[in-house]
Amino acid sequence: GLSSIDKERIKIINNINKLLFETSNNSLSDYTEKIREAKKELFDFRMKLGTNKATELLEANFRWTDTFDDLNEKLISKIE
């Protein structure tokens, strides 16, 4: 239900924020791969919301669109 969707959303956001502020000794290619994986996870979650009639309005109703767009832009900026 909504609880599991919200938990998944929070997990994804926390993982992305952790990655964005990560300071590690990983190689650039490893970091780039992590960024790509995070972008895919975010995309897949948004697609899941958009293709399920019960959840398609959640992104708009809870204003998640702005948050997701912002996170995506930050991820893109890290690999450009």
Largest beta-sheet characterization: none
Strand content: under 5%
Number of strands: 0
Residue-averaged pLDDT:
87
Run of helices and strands:
HHHH
The helical percent reads over 70%
Broad structural category: mainly alpha
Classify the oligomer: single chain
Uncertain residue segments: none
Specify Rg, calculated over alpha carbons.
13 Å
Global outline? elongated
Q: Tally the helices.
A: 4
- Give the N-terminus to C-terminus distance in angstroms: 37 Å
Structure description:
Helix content is 79%, strand content 0%. It has helices at residues 2-20, 28-51, 58-61, 64-79. Helix 1 (2-20) packs parallel to helix 4 and helix 2 runs antiparallel to helix 4. The chain is elongated. The mean pLDDT is 87.
Produce the secondary structure layout.
Layout (H helix, E strand, L loop, with lengths): L1 H19 L7 H24 L6 H4 L2 H16 L1
Helix pairs in contact: 1-2, 1-4, 2-4
Can you tag this structure with a few keywords?
mainly alpha, 80 residues, single chain, elongated, 4 helices
In short:
This protein is mostly helical.
